[in-house]
């Protein structure tokens, strides 16, 4: 039973203030405590009784996270949940322009919230990624991604060469602006813009999509989600190469670095309306299949 809900709004989203005030009243009236993310609480009139926590602390205290914003806000919270290793579902309400993940509309907010609190909501588990960077003579670093791990060149850099391997051995060597390793959830994000395929979220797979490859024969490929993908940039001191995780975090790579990407232990748990299918969302949000 959910007794505490974390509430997170897009940073500086003043349009969400009336809804945040309403939610602060609605949740206790239904026997549920509200915990507001620090920047979200700043959007609201001051209240000494309000419980406030930063993102990382919040996900360890609640049984559900309510996100008011766009997909970027939801991804940020999903990454926090993944890093914390907790099993908290997310209900995303769209205040953004596209809202592919935050697909619940504002009129659907309270029916969706009631269903989630009652345990009747449809919760979809989405594959997530764990990425580790190994560097000679340094401790490995890692991060979590819901959509994608992207290796790409700097703004002033030339094309980069990337060696891509899985357990069976070398897959290919690609010369390109970069590489996207996407989940089915992320297949409709940067992967799609770069010419990769749309993959239904229930498909257990990863997509490897070169970014603007120099050779026409370097095409996207779909591989089993059980694979561990290893990418090694073949670079020298003139190259600028970066790795990013969901576009939320990242770092510059050095010569000799290797990025290892595999399925994360913890999936993202997404509360979805039972009233629309994935393909309805594709048609509505992306105009998929329209002539």
Describe the structure.
The protein is α+β, with helices and mostly antiparallel strands. It has two domains: 144 residues, 3-Layer(aba) Sandwich (Rossmann fold), CATH 3.40.50.10330; 135 residues, Sandwich (Tumour Suppressor Smad4). The protein is 20% helix and 37% strand. It is built from seven helices and 19 strands. The strands form four sheets. The protein has a six-stranded antiparallel sheet with strand order 8-7-18-15-10-11. A six-stranded antiparallel sheet has the order 14-13-12-9-16-17, with no helix packed on it. A five-stranded parallel sheet has the order 3-2-1-4-5, sandwiched between helices. The protein is globular.
Annotated CATH architecture of the largest domain: 3-Layer(aba) Sandwich
Tally of contiguous helical segments: 7
Q: Sketch the major β-sheet.
A: 6 strands, antiparallel
* Strand-residue proportion: 35-45%
Q: What share of the residues lie within helices?
A: 10-25%
CATH third-tier fold name of the largest domain: Rossmann fold
Q: What shape does the CA trace take? A: globular
Report the count of strand segments: 19
Topology order in helix (H) and strand (E) letters: EHEHEHEHEHEEEEEEEHEEEEEEEH
> CATH homologous superfamily of the largest domain, by name?
Probable inorganic polyphosphate/atp-NAD kinase, domain 1
Helix/strand-derived category reads alpha+beta
Tell me the count of domains. Answer: 2
Radius of gyration: 20 Å
Average residue pLDDT: 93
What ranges have pLDDT less than 50 throughout 5 or more consecutive residues?
none
Taking the alpha carbons of the first and last residues, their distance comes to 46 Å
* Strand line-up of the largest beta sheet: 8-7-18-15-10-11
CATH class of the largest domain: Alpha Beta
């Amino acid at each position: 039973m959910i007794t505490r809900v974390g509430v997170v709004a897009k940073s500086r989203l003043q349009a969400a203030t009336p809804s945040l005030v309403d939610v602060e009243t609605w949740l206790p009236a239904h026997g549920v405590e509200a915990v507001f993310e620090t920047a979200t609480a700043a959007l609201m009139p001051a209240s000494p009784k309000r419980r406030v926590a930063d993102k990382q602390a919040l996900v360890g205290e609640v049984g559900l996270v309510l996100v008011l914003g766009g997909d970027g806000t939801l991804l940020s919270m999903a990454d926090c949940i993944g890093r914390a290793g907790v099993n908290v579902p997310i209900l995303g309400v769209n205040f953004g322009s596209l809202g592919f993940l935050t697909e619940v509309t504002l009129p659907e907010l309270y029916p969706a919230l009631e269903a989630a609190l009652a345990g009747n909501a449809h919760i979809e588990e989405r594959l997530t990624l764990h990425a580790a960077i190994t560097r000679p003579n340094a401790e490995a670093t890692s991060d979590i991604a819901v959509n994608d791990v992207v290796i790409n060149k700097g703004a002033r850099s030339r094309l980069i060469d990337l060696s891509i391997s899985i357990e069976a051995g070398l897959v290919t060597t690609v010369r390109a602006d970069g590489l996207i390793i996407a989940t089915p959830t992320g297949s409709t994000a940067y992967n799609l813009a770069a010419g990769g395929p749309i993959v239904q979220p229930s498909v257990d797979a990863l997509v490897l999509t070169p970014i603007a490859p120099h050779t026409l024969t370097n095409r996207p490929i779909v591989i089993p989600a059980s694979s561990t993908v290893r990418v090694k940039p073949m670079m020298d001191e003139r190259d600028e190469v970066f790795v990013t995780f969901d576009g939320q975090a990242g770092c510059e790579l050095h010569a000799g670095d290797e990025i290892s990407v595999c399925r994360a232990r913890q999936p993202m748990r997404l509360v979805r309306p039972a009233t629309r299918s994935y393909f309805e969302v594709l048609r509505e949000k992306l105009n998929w299949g329209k002539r």
